[in-house]
TrEMBL record:
Keywords: Disulfide bond, Signal. SMART domains: IG (SM00409), IGc2 (SM00408). One of its GO terms (biological process) is immune response. It comes from Sparus aurata. GO terms for molecular function: transmembrane signaling receptor activity. This is Ig-like domain-containing protein. SUPFAM superfamilies: Immunoglobulin (SSF48726). One of its GO terms (cellular component) is external side of plasma membrane. Residues 26-114, 217-296 form the Ig-like domain. It comes from the Eukaryota. Gene3D superfamilies: Immunoglobulins (2.60.40.10).
Length: 298
């Protein structure tokens, strides 16, 4: 710690105004987005729940547009909702890439409106995104001692790496959990975490999103962070932090045992849709976290 802050020549005219706003908030809005992960093009249902259930609400639906320069979103009305809708849901058809939404509920008597927090729907694919996020090393699980970088690529000079923690649903950006240099976020992974990461560009775009899990245990599963394509060969391995392999290594797909011998690797020569799901491995009584492997069509 440096010296305590010293205030000199403080004017005795200094006055501080504290405003306490005693507004009555008759309602709160909760926006839910379903599904939360897109598989190919999908219809996304937005539902705006109002705690005050009385009639007379009109709902307005917005797209969120990232603005990394000030860390806020701007909002654009979705088609057909310029005069609001009576129903509290809205369906977006053919959504193919990561996007954010917001809803507003408005009433006339008494005049009042309220905005929801922004909610995202994530796409894991890269095919249709102009911007993309890559993970290095390219895997879903990492030890706290690993050095993990997340890089944004695409048509922009300005990027922000965003994080939504699975545990507390807390939305933050790279500066809270790492260091951003240019378009790369180097995670400071000294503690365990599980989160979704994606990039937001200065030109208002969202990238694909990835699940990253940082583990402080002794065993991790090495599985692809990005979706694999049908027909690809895929190898999943079990990795130990400190020990060497001494006994059987167990691999599980959706909790079903798929391999138990001395191999530290589970190989799929041509991956198919049925290989999608959660994988984990186990060695000497210690188990890795599970990770979702996503398989996309050719
Ligand atoms: C990310 O994790 C969630 C929950 O574990 C899962 O439902 C989702 O499919 C995963 N997405 C990808 C692309 O792995
Ligand atoms: C990472 O986080 C730890 C714990 O907060 C801190 O002590 C360390 O200085 C950080 N490292 C970097 C490179 O920011």
């Amino acid at each position: 710690w440096s010296d305590p802050i010293k205030l000199t020549n403080v004017s005795d005219q200094l006055s501080i105004h504290v405003f306490i706003l005693k507004n009555h908030f008759p309602t709160e809005l909760l926006l839910t987005v379903s599904p939360s992960w897109l598989s190919a093009a999908a219809s996304v249902t937005l539902t705006c729940s109002v705690t005050d259930q009385s009639a007379g609400w009109r709902f307005y639906w917005y797209n969120t547009v990232p603005d990394p320069s000030n860390n806020y979103y701007s909002y654009e009305l979705l088609p057909g909702s310029s005069s609001g809708t009576e129903q509290d849901f809205y369906i977006v058809h053919g959504q193919t890439h990561t996007a954010g939404y917001m809803c507003r509920a408005e009433r006339e008597d008494p005049v009042f409106y309220s905005d929801s927090r922004p909610k995202l729907v994530w796409s894991a694919g890269q095919s249709v995104s102009i911007s993309s996020l890559t993970v290095s090393p390219d895997r879903a699980q990492h030890f706290t001692s690993d050095s993990v970088s997340l890089s944004c690529e695409g048509n922009s000079a300005e990027w922000r790496v965003k994080k939504l923690s699975t545990e507390d649903r807390y939305l933050s950006d790279c500066s809270f959990s790492g260091t951003m240099t240019g378009s790369t976020c180097k995670l400071n992974s000294s503690w365990a975490s599980e989160a979704v990461y994606w990039c937001e560009s200065g030109s208002g775009e969202f990238s694909n999103a990835v699940n990253i899990s940082v583990q402080d245990g002794d065993v991790i599963l090495l599985s692809p962070a990005r979706p694999v394509t049908e027909g690809d060969s895929v190898s999943l391995s079990c990795k130990l932090k400190s020990q060497t392999f001494t006994s059987t290594v167990f691999f599980y797909h959706n909790e079903k045992l798929i391999q138990n011998d001395s191999r530290q690797e589970f190989k799929i020569s041509a991956v198919s849709k049925s290989d999608e799901g959660f994988y984990k491995c186990q060695h000497s009584g210690q188990e890795s976290a599970k990770s979702w492997m996503s398989v996309q069509g050719e």
